[in-house]
Amino acid sequence: MSEAKAEILRRIREATADGPVADPVQRTYRRTSSRDRAEVVEMLRDRLIDYRASVRDETEETVAAAIAELLGPDARYVVPAGLEPDWLPADSRGAGRERITEPAVGHTGERAAVRGAHDGEREPLSVDALNEVDAVVTSSTVSCAETGTIFLSGRPDEGRRAITLVPDHHVCIVPLDSVVELFPEALARVEATAPITMISGPSATSDIELERVEGVHGPRRLDVILLDRAG
């Protein structure tokens, strides 16, 4: 916490010291699920499809081929430095698809250049550069089936927020063991200080006449891979 923020909070505490004490929050809502794993996963699938995302089931043996199919033969796509390399197609320059590896970025904003097989030393891509790529492939922290929401928290296999908001196509890997039913269960798996991005389907908004417009605040195409790491 910065000195300025600490000083602001200190002054607030000082100014409200004589105020009434708030009643304790009654946490009587459900905080743990009673559903079995298969039911929770199907709930997430149903919600995501309803939000117009595409959903497919893969294993660690099939996920690379699935991603290659979703990207197409000529895509330029971004991946965060910490994404499991075995999950990705074997791409190289001159062979159609081009993979661009983003460096790891910590929650504090600290950046480190990364050396990829074909990229050399690379700094984080600018917004203009991200706007020129076709897609981004990331993993995810946790997914809430009840709301159909995927959480990204800036981990090394997810990357910084910009890489999942600027490209028009996001391929998001959701390990089955990261799927929970309830929102409190999902929040419990996310660091309180992490830069959390919550995704519930492709980006979409409506104007005053309820005309749906996609891709305004993020990718207009979302492909979700439910990854069975035990299979």
Automatic annotation (TrEMBL):
Give start and end of each LUD domain: 120-227
The record's section on Pfam families has: LUD_dom
> Do you know which PANTHER family this protein is assigned to?
LACTATE UTILIZATION PROTEIN C
Q: What is this protein called?
A: LUD domain-containing protein
The species is Micrococcus yunnanensis
